[in-house]
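Researcher: I'd like a structural prediction for the single chain below. Treat it as a standalone chain; there are no partners to consider.
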Amino acid sequence: MPVIGWFFLVLALCLIVGSLLILRDNANSMRIPKDKMEKILKRKAEMEARDKAEEDR
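Model: Treating it as a single chain, here is the predicted structure.
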């Protein structure tokens, strides 16, 4: 394989690994406000109750 091919291969691998590292570092920095989290949990409870009611039929 020519040198330019190896260069592009290494560049692509570096971009993928770099993106994954950045994603890992930013994973915990995105906090959800309390009011939105309460809304999410309420909606989740409603959906679980609806699923349980459908299973009981």
